[in-house]
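explain this chain.
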Amino acid sequence: MSQWHQQFAEQMESLFAQSSTGFERFADEVIEPVFESVSAFLARWHYEASCPPSETPRRVYRFGLTEDGYLLIWFRLSGLDTVECEYEYSLPHVGRVNGVRTTGSLRAAESEWVESCFQMALNNFVSKFIDAGQRRHAEQPALV
């Protein structure tokens, strides 16, 4: 490796480390407070909200209604300046279902964007949970 390659590689490593630090700061200062607010609101419906362990730079959040009915939402850094939010959920008698991925700029991401990510995922999860229950109920034969 030439001297230029070595110097450039060191600069890029520094740039990626700086970006990762920026994501961690964003997660601590923006994502976590939104998660706490959403969790407090959902407590009245007996959601079990938690933060499963995850690798840096990534944060995972779990909202459980039942043992096999839960939502996972994760935020992660992609590249230098892109924050991805993705979710999946599991439904009773259905199993795991992939959700949607949305992205934003780390420099421009705000609490409103994070809140909209949580809301979109939770809305979809509850709608599909209702649909799955209605289908299951319709499939049961009527007792005579």
In short: DSSP finds two helices and five strands in the chain. The radius of gyration is 20 Å.
